[in-house]
């Protein structure tokens, strides 16, 4: 029990269980005791904890704020295509489009001007280039290497990341090669290594394996280093769950799985410890950052990894999460700007350093509008 003179005030519970001899306060029954107005001004009332003092003004709140959000924490995903020279809106992701390479460069410049400094590219690949082995994924003249080179030429300071997985190039819509109806691990890794080296040659700053094959981070690190790409980092999608929240993304890229689902390689949403196994393996294999995906339903996973690994953590606020906020906002049921900025801050509180979000540039714009680029 806390003595009446102790610097930490007793909580209501402690007060209610306190030895009556040390105070004039006599607890009556349970919670009612805490609101007994007859005790105004007595020892308990004056010793009551008042956390609201630290929230009394904007000045005080900013003094004791624990977490901050800046545009530099945000990474903007950009969908790219060459089916036509049109920017094609994505119906299930209002505000997002399949960009041409020229409009992609404009998106990068726009983000950079607002303080968003990192971008990740996702290609929509025409059906006639898709095969089971997904060899188009390492074509040096393919859409991604050319896009990376254009971004780096236009904005050398921008951090350009690419997604490493076979699904946009797979005629099966899977992240790996399919043999006898199964997604085969080790053969897939060989393709992923070629893909990563191809992107590194084009100038990518980071490659992001999103395929969830076993052992791919170590293999990618060796393949990159063997060609001298020691400065190219790996943001590993460490804890990537088999999630329904990816639906609008698969619409955007026309990459829905051709058969079955992705549950033999992406994680079971019921599992938390498994994420720690994946994260610690990826760290040991040489990942530079670890990613958790999707975002809000998996904040506990971010926290659990944060508590055991010291690498930076990225969180992916995925397409379905974006679509749900958009839908709610379009109905007028939620305040889009407030909900987005709150959501992004919550990622930071959970322990994420970097947040991949389709809202990156909009959020940076909102922060800039308020003249407060650090929330
Ligand atoms: N491997 C592809 C990939 N990379 C990122 C996403 C989803 C991103 C989003 O939903 O915003 C996916 C989809 C999937 O695994 O099916």
Automatic annotation (TrEMBL):
Gene Ontology biological process: protoporphyrinogen IX biosynthetic process
Catalyzed chemical reaction(s): 2 5-aminolevulinate = porphobilinogen + 2 H2O + H(+)
Top-rank lineage group of the source organism: Eukaryota
Enzyme class: lyase
Keywords: Heme biosynthesis, Lyase, Porphyrin biosynthesis, Signal
Pathway: Porphyrin-containing compound metabolism; protoporphyrin-IX biosynthesis; coproporphyrinogen-III from 5-aminolevulinate: step 1/4
GO molecular function: porphobilinogen synthase activity; zinc ion binding
EC number in record: 4.2.1.24
Stored InterPro entries: ALAD (IPR001731), ALAD_AS (IPR030656), Aldolase_TIM (IPR013785)
Annotated Gene Ontology cellular component terms: cytosol
Subunit-structure text: Homooctamer.
Function comment: Catalyzes an early step in the biosynthesis of tetrapyrroles. Binds two molecules of 5-aminolevulinate per subunit, each at a distinct site, and catalyzes their condensation to form porphobilinogen.
Family according to the record: Belongs to the ALAD family.
Protein name: Delta-aminolevulinic acid dehydratase
Species: Pelagomonas calceolata
